[in-house]
Write a structure and sequence with these properties.
The complex is a heterodimer. Chain A is mainly alpha-helical. Classes of the chains: A mainly alpha, B alpha/beta.
């Protein structure tokens, strides 16, 4: 039964995701296999969680599973009818095979280690808690949960991407199972590796550089050594994977096709569904994209860049109002008075940020490497790409730093200590991609066709 | 590939090596991460109870106790004001769903009015984490050295 449940859960995710990816991209988009695998995970998990949220208002248990699976089947069949080419594979070299071996070794370690780890604080208290309550209610959270004053510590206003994916697994298994729910960590890591490999090719690099980028996250100590890392059941790394997927198709970084604009819009839109700070990430990517596309008179593409995220953000806000969710307590509303009163925090916040970015024990050379990569791109004349990636990394960091100006904690530095590392984890895969894109690629037969 | 690009490639290769060495797998940090006692369905919850309260198979035990309680009456969670106990208290709250679970924190010096603060919520039972139940509340069952359970008479 467990094997069948897992097969259904993962099968529906990938079927829906790959179908949706092909539908959005259209027949002109030639897929790299790794790229498609990573995008399928992102879109598929988005589909499943949204299906549970919306269909869960009327359906529950077996009916909810059946309806979600039916929708996935429809998406898969429609998507597979679209005949799109695949990017030609470059001939394998010894270095490629070595890198694949490294990836396989990482996979072996993760499969061996992940089942031994307990879910972390947020993993249990914020995300899996919701999944458990949702499962016991037939799949979706009952309205009473959102307004429960005794469980407001579990942040009922947080978006539901992660807990509803966990609830989906529980529905398919027919039980709550904290052992199997940790599967999402390794799957998200696999999606990140696939997106790094495929995304590097999509953005003009070589297969070899993509294969070198894919296992790189393993050498960022915090990913597997940190208490809030990839395998601890937190939503930060899944959000990082969504951010990476959106970044690959970001119209600000390069000229994109109509299909890529649609992929961008939907992936970016899922950011607001991943975590509360996903709204900042969405604004940072979607607004400049929409403005640029509008400036170039690409109205349909601009529509796609903005509307999915806006609709999801607005819809969820309305939903929280309807269910009378208990409001957020960690941050004060942004006002001139609050910012002025907390202006003295700026220095300590910047100092703490600086220490974090050069902390080798947590990040290795990731952030200095990303900075060096941006400088290298500028020196090589890749100015548009350099400025875009710099914005994609620095603007979220700025937003996160500013958020601590509004922290309601009496000890805001403690608040930073307990959350900053996780916030930066959301940008880690994008930083790896930045480094990969700075490496000059040897031209080989079958190299990627990506535009500048 | 131009000579400049070859130098860049060499530089980035050295960087990759430095990156891998600087980020060498933090064996000790990985070993220090909390681990589960087994692969049971609520193993992470059990890990929290074991680590925080010294309670083995806590989720099964607590669910058995809750099964005997009415679903329409709250279950109070009384915790010594110590953040290390919060995960366990939180898990008791989750296991108590769909009952209301008022969560009271007691200062280390104690609270002479604790019984009144609990009875305001009219709970069917109360879990005490590193706190002694107030006298007269009912017979306390010690589930572990740090966890006591008191079933509260509806007439109170």
């Amino acid at each position: 039964m467990t094997v069948l449940g897992l097969a259904i859960a993962l099968g529906v995710i990938f079927a829906a995701g790959s179908g949706l990816a092909r539908l959005l991209a259209g027949s002109e988009h030639a897929w790299d296999r790794s790229e498609l695998a990573g995008v399928s995970w992102v879109l598929g998990t988005g589909y499943v969680s949204l299906a549970i949220w919306i269909l869960g208002l009327a359906l529950s248990s077996a009916a909810l599973v059946a309806a979600t699976a039916f929708g996935a089947a429809v998406l898969a069949l429609r998507g597979w009818k679209i005949r799109s080419a695949s990017l030609p594979r470059e001939p394998w070299t010894k270095v490629d095979l070595l890198l694949l071996t490294l990836l396989a070794a990482e996979a072996v370690f993760i499969v061996w280690w992940a089942p031994r780890l307990a879910l972390g604080w947020d993993g249990l208290m914020i995300w899996e808690l919701k999944a458990r309550i949702a499962f016991e209610n037939g799949g979706a959270l009952p309205f009473s949960y959102f307004g429960d004053p005794h469980r407001s510590w579990s942040h009922p206003i947080y978006p539901l991407y992660f807990p509803y994916n966990e609830a989906w697994l529980y529905l398919c298994l027919g039980r709550v199972d904290q052992a199997w729910v940790r599967l999402f960590g390794p799957m998200a890591y696999g999606a990140a590796a696939a997106l790094l490999a495929g995304g590097a090719r999509r953005l003009g690099s070589s297969q070899q550089i993509g294969l070198a980028a894919a296992p790189a996250l393993f050498f960022v100590p915090y990913c597997f050594g940190g208490g809030w890392g990839v395998l601890a059941g937190y939503a930060d790394f899944p959000l990082a994977v969504i951010f990476l997927a959106a970044l690959i198709y970001w119209p600000v970084m390069r000229e994109v096709s109509a299909g890529e604009a649609r992929l961008f819009g939907v992936a970016a839109g899922l950011l607001v569904w991943g975590k509360s700070e996903g709204s900042y990430l969405w604004l940072i990517l979607a607004v400049p994209a929409a403005l640029m596309l509008t400036w170039r008179n690409r109205w349909a593409a601009a529509f796609w860049a903005l509307v999915p995220g806006a609709a999801l953000l607005g819809g969820f806000r309305v939903f929280l109002g309807v269910v009378k969710a208990v409001p957020e307590i960690n941050y004060a509303p942004a006002s001139g008075t609050t910012l002025h009163a907390n202006a003295a925090r700026v220095g300590p916040i910047l100092e703490r940020f600086g220490h974090e970015l050069i902390d080798l024990e947590k990040w290795s050379l990731l952030w200095p490497g990303a900075a060096a990569a941006l400088i290298a791109m500028l020196l090589c004349g890749l100015r548009r790409r350099a400025f875009a990636l710099a914005a994609a990394l620095l603007l979220p960091m700025t937003a996160y730093a500013c958020a601590y100006l509004l922290s309601t904690w009496s000890d805001f530095l403690l608040h930073m200590e307990l959350s900053l590392t996780r916030l930066l984890l959301q940008l880690a895969p994008a930083a790896v991609l930045t480094i990969a894109l700075a490496v000059p690629a040897r031209a080989r037969p079958g190299a990627s066709p990506s535009s500048s | 590939m131009t000579r400049s690009q070859e130098w860049q490639l060499a530089g980035w290769s050295l960087f990759a090596l430095a990156f891998a060495v600087a980020g060498a797998i933090p064996i000790e940090a990985i070993r220090r991460q909390p681990q589960v006692p087994d692969q049971s369905p609520l193993n992470s919850t059990d890990a929290v109870f074991l680590q925080t309260l010294g309670l083995h198979d806590g989720s099964t035990l607590i669910r058995e106790l809750l099964r005997a309680l009415p679903r329409d009456r709250p279950v109070a969670i009384v915790q010594r004001d110590d953040h290390t106990l919060a995960p366990a208290a939180g898990q008791v709250s989750v296991l108590s769903w769909p009952r209301a679970a008022p969560w009271l924190r007691v200062a280390r010096a104690g609270d002479p009015e604790l019984a009144n603060h609990i009875s305001v919520h009219q709970p069917a039972a109360a879990f005490f984490l590193s706190v002694d139940p107030p006298p007269g509340m009912g017979l306390a069952t010690a589930l572990s050295p740090e966890l006591r359970f008191v079933r509260i008479d509806a007439a109170r």
